[in-house]
Design brief:
two-stranded antiparallel sheet; 5-stranded mixed sheet; elongated; 11% strand; 7 strands; alpha+beta; 5 helices; single chain
């Protein structure tokens, strides 16, 4: 076909215009948004498994930190009670806290006697592991490793988580006449200050531990005694009032020299609870 009749000078501007239009369209065209990539089920399960594993690793560690914090506060409370006891001695010419608090009216034991020596000492009567929120109201209610005791005195009910070493009561100690060779009668009787307990974790308001207390066989047979305490009325097995699993097979104790520490339950028999306590190292609950 003969195309010589076509005037190329007329076609050239049209081609140029179409080319510019194409370029403009390519430059300004709207891009379609790219599809978002979602996690697959397997990826989600892997992430959840990793989180669960991390929690399984961290939770016991966090629990241990929490329990150590409770034990630290408990020892601080014990130390404060011991300081209150020492201030009482200073105020009353080195006379031990009486069993019957005549000065402050009645049978309120040490709770009332030392109440005036340190402000808000009541708040220090509760271990964080056996807090005031766990109080079960009632007369003469024993506590346990997680609950405070309740004592009914002449001025009302008192509650707490700690026991005083009964051998440090004054001359009106109800057991002094039966065990005159055991009771600390005066300040100078306390010679090994760093080994004589003043206050400790306990299920009752006081205790009179003796080296003849021996209930390891009962605890091995029934470990629940480490929660409830091996409690027998009277002077039988008074160590059972403080031998409780409150802080990981340990209890907090403050000593006559003013320091406080955690003591293993088996080591309770190595302390000088009374004047002639014979140290024992044969106790084991395993």
């Amino acid at each position: 076909m003969d195309l010589s009749f076509i005037n190329l000078s007329l076609i050239h501007p049209i081609v140029k215009c179409l080319t510019k239009y194409k370029d403009y369209k390519m430059e300004h065209r709207t891009k379609a948004p790219a599809a978002k990539r979602a996690f697959t089920l397997i990826e989600l399960l892997v992430v959840i498994s990793i989180i669960a594993l991390l929690l399984a690793i961290l939770m016991p560690a966090l629990g241990m930190v929490k329990e150590k914090a409770k034990a630290l506060v408990c020892s601080t409370n014990n130390r404060t009670l011991c300081q209150a006891y020492q201030l009482y001695l200073a105020d009353y010419d080195d006379k031990f806290v009486p069993y019957n608090d005549v000065v402050n009216a009645g049978t309120n034991l040490w709770m009332n006697s030392i109440s005036d020596t340190i402000d808000d000492v009541k708040a220090n009567r509760f271990c964080p592991a056996a807090p005031e929120s766990k109080v079960e109201e009632g007369v003469g209610r024993r506590g346990d490793y997680r609950k405070p005791w309740g004592w009914s005195g002449s001025t009302g009910l008192s509650y707490g988580s700690y026991a005083i070493n009964g051998w440090l009561y004054g001359p009106d100690d109800p057991w002094a006449s039966q065990f005159p060779n055991l009771d600390f009668e005066k300040y100078t009787d306390v010679t090994r200050l760093s080994e004589v307990p003043v206050f400790s974790d306990g299920i009752w308001v006081d205790s009179w531990p003796r080296d003849v207390d021996d209930f390891q066989a009962q605890i091995i047979t029934n470990p629940e005694y480490l929660k409830t305490g091996y409690y027998i009325d009277g002077m039988n097995q008074n160590m059972g009032r403080v031998c409780i699993d409150r802080h990981g097979m340990k209890i907090s104790i403050s000593f006559f020299d003013g320091h406080a520490e955690l003591v293993k339950l088996e080591d309770l028999w190595t302390l000088q609870w009374h004047k002639n306590f014979n140290v024992r190292r044969d106790i084991s609950f395993r």
